[in-house]
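#struct-help
A.M.: can someone run this one for me? Single chain, 572 residues.
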Amino acid sequence: MKITSIIIAFIFTLSLSFASELTELYKKNQTPTYTELIAHYQQLADTYESARLIEYGKSDSGEPIYLFVISHSCIFDADSIQAEGLATVLINNAIHPGEPCGVDASAKLAEDLLAEGVIPNTRGVTCIIPAYNVGGMLNRGCCSRANQDGPEEYGFRGNAKNLDLNRDFIKADAENTKTFYKIYQDWKPQIFVDAHSTNGADYPAEMTLINTARSRVEPSMRNFFSISMTNSLYNDMIREGYSISPYYHTYGDTITDGLMEYMDSPRYSTGYTTLFNTMGYVSEAHMLKPYPVRVEATYAFLKSVVYFTQQNSSAVLSIYNNANTNTRKIEEYGINYKLDTTTNLELKFESYRKKYRTSSVTGLPIHYFDQSIRDTNTIPYYADYKPEKMIQVPRYYVLPQAWAAVKERLDLSQIEYRTLAKDTTMQVELYYISKYETSERPYEGHYFHYNTEVIKDTQEITLRAGDMIIPTDQDGIRYIIESLEPEAEDSFFSWGFFDSMLQQKEWFSDYVFEPKAEKILAENPKLKADFEQKKRDDKEFASNSWAMLYYIYTNSKYYEITHNRYPVFRVM
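D.P.: on it. C-alpha cells below:
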C-alpha cells in the first residue's frame, strides 16, 4: 500500500512538473505548439478528477478542436450543469494564433484553478477552448506580425481556408465555426471571453478591453454587465497592478477627440454570443508590451472573470435567465446600429504623446508615440448606438427546404422549428429586394451585400411538405432576426446565401414580344399613361427600344414573380 502511494505520488509530481514547464514557456518569450498544448491539457485531465478534455469536432485543418472543462462539482454533462444551476464561463483562445497570449494564460489558469482544489461553495464551471484556429496555429513562423513584440514563433491569423475566424460567426464557412456552435449551444455560457492582442496605436496600458456594445445588450442586463461586472473586472486588474482601458478605437485623429465603443456585429464572436444573451468580452493585450507582460495581464483578466462568476453565480444566472425571458417577448427589434454622437461618457485616459517626424525611408511625415511623455486627458467616450431600422417581429418565419445551407446553420444554433407535413397554401408577408450594393472585392470568401432596401408585399404562397415554420417565441429570436432579415448588416442575404434569387431566369425576344407589348398597353390605360410619362421624363429611356419593351415586360403577367423575391417569408 505504501509503495503504491509512493508510485502514485511520483506520477502526480511528474505530471505537475510537465504542466509547469509548459506554463513557464511564456517567460522565455515562447508559446507552445498545438501538440504540446493539447498534451498539457490531457495531462491535467488525467491528473485531476475535476477536469475533462473533450474532443468536440473538426477544424478546417483536419485536426480536432477540444474543450477543457473544469468542474469542481465533477459534473461534466452540459445539461446537468444547467439543471444544477451552475454558472458557466467559456474562454476562447487562438482565434488569431499570432496573438497567443490567451493560449499561455489559459494553460496557466487551468493548472492554477485545479491546483487550488475544491473551492467552497463554488457554483461556477470554467470551459476553455485551448486552440480554436488549429490550422493557423499549425502554420507557425516568426514574422507575420511585424508590429508585435514576441513571442519568438507563433501561428498565423488565417485558418486552413485563409478565413479570419473572427469574421465567420454568422456565416459559418469554417468547420471551426460549426464546431464552436456545438460547444456554445451545448454549454450555453453566461459569460464569454475571446483572448487577443491589439493592432495599432501605442499607449501605456498593458490591457485594453472590448465589451459587447452595451446598446446591443438586453436592457434588463445592461446595468449588471456594464457597471457591476465590468467595473469589478477593471478594479481587479488595477489592484493586480495592471493598467487597463477600453479598446483604443478612436473617434477622430487624436486621442482628445475621444474613443468609441466597438460595435461587435454578429460576424464577430461576441456579436454572435450576444444574440443569445451571453455577456461577452474581447481581451486585447497590448502588442508592443513584452510577451511575458501580455500573458500575465491576460491571465489576471481571465482569473478575474472566473472568480467574479464563482462569487456572483446566482446573480449571473438570474440576470441571464431574466434576459432570455424578456427577449422572447419582444415585438420590435432594432437592426444596423449607428453611433450616436449627441451623447457620451467621460473617460480619464493616459496616452503617449503623438508626434510627427520625417521618415528616413519615404522622406514624408510619419507619426510616432513619444513614450517619454505621458498625457492624461479626460476625453469623451461614445458608447451609445441607435438602430437605423426597427423590425416588427412576426409570429413565424418560413424557410423553404431548398435553402439547405441556411437550415444547417439554424440547426447548429439549435433554432426550434417544425416542418410542414403536407403541401399548404398560406398568406404571408414577403420582401422584394429593391436595392443593394456589393463589395468590389471578395471579403472573407464572399462578395458582401450592404445598404440593402426592400419592398414589402403580401401574397399567397404554396409551401411544400418539409418546408420549415420557425416560431419567434424562443431563446434564439435575436439570431433568427439578425440572420433572416435581409436588411440586417450580417444577415444571410448580406453574406450571399440567397444570391441565386437575384438572377432573372426567363427573358423575351423583342420581335416576338413587341406585338404583345402593344396589346398590354391597350388593355392597361394606367400602365400606358405611366409609360408615356416615363418617355417624356427620361430621354435616354425613350431612345432605347429594349428598355421600353423591358419596362412593359416587367409590368406584365409574363415577368417572373419570383425575381428578386426574398425566399424567406413572414407570418404576422
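A.M.: thanks! Confidence is low (pLDDT under 50) at residues 1-15.
D.P.: also worth noting: The CA atoms of residues 184 and 555 lie 48 Å apart.
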